[in-house]
Amino acid sequence: MRQQQPAKTTKAVTRPRLGVFKFASCDGCQLSVLNLEDELVALGQALDIVYFPEASSAMKAGPYDIVLVEGSITTSEDARRILNVREQARTLITIGACATAGGIQALRNWADVEAFKRAVYPSPQYIDSLGASTPISEHVRVDYELWGCPIDKGQLLRLLIDLLAGVQPRLPTQSVCLECKRQGHVCVMVARGLPCLGPVTRTGCGAICPGMGRDCYGCFGPAEGPSAGPGLPPNTASLASRFHHDLQLIPVEVLRRFRGINGHAKPFKDESHAWEDA
Question: Most buried pick, 47, 64, 99, 156, via CB within 10 A?
């Protein structure tokens, strides 16, 4: 008589838990996550997306294995909330210019915020706003940063795949100029005299603007890499000098080139300060 074999039991596989949090932002980077489309279905099979208010009302408490954070810190409530998010996150990734550099709203860092409140709101005394818009890294430890306005969805997908595979992610830090050369774009600064920030801006966008014949305006933040050395800032002073002396930009125009979407990022901020009294 054959002995009956015990039934095999299958152990449930626990998927890493993903949370997506928003602070002061336009939601564009979260939409980039949703724009993964077909890949999002596969990602949902590999990750347990448990907190994502932009996509679902079914929200679960932490802790989380991976947290994506969009937006800058602009209120005292935000400053407290990000501390709680960091405590719940094993790996925290900032996504987009707002989270990595303060965003376009960081332009207020050079202005009178109280005057803005009085000009915009009928009852400014009810507006709880900090005097500056700051990136997430100024408040908590950040593990990885995805730059861009908005982020590149392909870059996000590669980062998440690397984390799931246990591979150390390698994010591009080279300048947009290298991307232009790879794609065969004619240099808009050399050929058309446009004040392009490509030499000091990190790649990631696919050189969209130069590919369309217009100048880069730095939406992927300061570059690093071979021209400056890994982890070192780009040579913004040389580029600014060319804008002024060769392209005939007056000092305030040079300042405005660096004080844009990523104007609060240190290399761009420092260069803009250098032209304030020029």
Answer: 99
